[in-house]
Design goal:
Number of strands: 10
Distance between the termini: 47 Å
Radius of gyration: 33 Å
Shape: rod-shaped
Number of helices: 5
CATH topology of one domain: Alpha-Beta Plaits
Order of helices and strands: HEEEEHEHEHEHEEE
Largest sheet: 5 strands, antiparallel
């Protein structure tokens, strides 16, 4: 009986020692950062268009309703959905009352137009009397597939991290193993900022050139960046 107990004790000690050896032999790893940047051509462009009444001649004044009707029809003719054109602001408080009291008051309205490209912009603006357009500028750009680009940027960042780790490991005669862990550090979307006083002023009193060709308008690009940390095993 004593011999049996002694044998079991020795076997148990051997198994315990083997398990400790396995735990002490930790996997060697390397941790690296990977970054990426994707440049996107916007397919959602917001234009602000300001129309203002003006005196066509001594006896004729072109009112805001006429200009608005011209713009609405030009947008419709270009095949742009009606809901893409909205009123952004109307000049002055209770401008309609002022208009009735003051014949010299020239009402103005600012519209916001959503486009997928600028290809039809000049044809739309040509449908409105030039003298009634005081300003046209790009206020914002975006992309309908922005979430897809965000994911693509993450993948590119992870691929960059793997490539970096491979070069480093191979430089010391080792081989890169499987990824052990991935941490997303940052994912950013940089959209160009526009305003009424600068940047892409296309037509109107504030523009330098009132006959800008559609294809020459630079509306800038969107940039998506990603930064990840990855841990890879070393074989």
């Amino acid at each position: 009986m004593k011999k049996v107990l002694l044998t079991l004790l020795v076997a148990g000690m051997a198994i315990t020692g083997f398990a400790q050896d396995m735990n002490d032999k930790k996997t060697k790893t390397i941790t690296v950062n990977g970054t990426s940047e994707i440049e996107i051509t916007p397919d959602i462009i917001y234009l602000n268009i300001t129309l203002q009444e003006y005196q066509k001649d001594k006896n004729n004044k072109v009112d805001i309703s006429t200009l608005e009707d011209q713009l609405t029809k030009a947008v419709q003719k270009a095949g742009i959905p009606a809901e893409n054109l909205t009123i952004s602001s109307v000049s002055g408080a209770q401008w309609w009352r002022k208009k009735k009291k003051d014949a010299d008051f020239y009402a103005s309205k600012e519209f916001r137009l959503k486009l997928s490209s600028l290809n039809k912009l000049n044809s739309i603006l040509d449908g409105v009397e030039d003298a009634g357009i005081t300003n046209v500028y790009i206020s914002e750009v975006s992309s309908s597939k922005i979430e897809d680009y965000r994911m693509a940027a993450k993948v590119k960042a992870l691929q960059a991290a793997k490539a970096k780790a491979s070069v480093m490991i191979e430089g010391i005669g080792e081989k890169l193993g499987a990824v052990q862990q991935v941490v997303e550090n940052n994912i950013n979307v940089f959209r160009p900022a526009y305003n009424n006083n600068a940047n892409v002023v296309i037509r109107g009193l504030n523009s330098i050139n009132t006959s800008v060709a559609d294809t020459n308008i630079d509306y800038r690009t969107i940039k998506v960046t990603a930064d990840v940390s990855a841990v890879f095993a070393i074989q």
